[in-house]
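Case study 2.
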Amino acid sequence: MEITKENTHSNETGKFVTFSIEDESFAVNILNVQEINQMNEITITRVPKSPNFLKGVLNLRGKIVPVINFRVRLGLHERECGHAARVIIAKLKGNLYGLMVDSISSVVELAQSNIDPPPSSLEGIDAEYIEGISKEGGNLMTILNLGKILSFT
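Prediction:
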């Protein structure tokens, strides 16, 4: 679901997995989420000479999946994973990715009319990461564009 000024008045809704990194709320379209795993239930193997946001790879039932530290990918400082930390296994263009987040909040249904495109005042590569801003329930939540965030090759 692409967020544009033209479709922000639509009655359409979409489901999103919401999660937190530090004190910020983010969401990704549930259609891109295959599963969610606890950090303490997986083993991540480091990859030499990889970008700083690539934590390593994991073996998911015989498939090797790169694990991205979303905190670092979004320009925040890396820190130890807490007990609520999770890895979202996302599927994009036939590939699987592990996305490390501080905690999962919920699955929500958001009305298109409550999602605005990113403000034009946000410029640069980081603005490409944002698909929209949700105003649902009076709280702001950043909806991330996985296609842009995961295009690091």
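The longest strand covers residues 13-21.
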